[in-house]
Amino acid sequence: GVLLYNHLQQKVRNAEALAQKYKQQQEALSAQLQVVYEHRSRLERSLQKERGEHKKTKEDFLVYKLEAQEALNKEKQDSMNRYGALSSQHKILKNQHDDVKKQLLDLQLQHNSLKLEHRKSLESHSQKVAQLQQEKDSQVTNLQDTVFKLREESKLLRKAHQEVHSQLLSAQAQMEEFRQLKEALQKMPGLR
C-alpha cells in the first residue's frame, strides 16, 4: 500500500508537473494568442484603412477616368473638326493648285508661241535691217557719186563763173573805152 501510495504520489507529482508544464505552455500560448489577436486587430484596422483608401482611390480613378474620357472625346471631336477643316482647305488648295498648274501650262504654251513669233519677227526684222542696210549702202554710194558729180560740176561752174567774170570785166573795160571814145567823139565839133 505504501509502495502503491508512493507510486501514486509520484504519478500525482508527475501529473502536477505535467499540468504545470501544460499550464505554462497554455499561458505562453495565451500570450502568443493575445499577441496574434492584437496583430490581427492591427491588421484588420490596417486592412480597413487600406480598403477605405482603395475605395477612395478607386472613386478618384473613376472620376479621373471619366474626366479623361470626356477630355479624350472632346479632343477627338476637336481633332475631327480640325481634320474636316484641313480636308476642306486641302481640297480648296488642291483646286487652286490645279488651276495654277493649268494657268502655268497655258502660259507656257503662250510663251512658246510668243517665243516662236518673236523668233520669226526677229528673223524678219534682221532681213529688213539687212535689206535697209543694203539700200542705205546703195543710197550712200549713189549720194557719194552725186556729191562727186556735184563737186565736179561746182568746179566747172566756178571755172565758168571765173571766165564769165573775166569776160564781164573785159566787157566793162570795153564799155568804158567805148564810153570814153563816145565822149571824145561828142566833144569834137567837126564830127558832130
From TrEMBL:
TM spans (from-to): none
Coiled coil: 5-60, 90-142
Keyword annotations of the record: Coiled coil
Domain of life of the source: Eukaryota
GO CC field: Golgi membrane
Protein name: GOLI4 protein
Organism: Sylvietta virens (Green crombec)
Lineage, top ranks: Eukaryota, Metazoa, Chordata, Craniata, Vertebrata
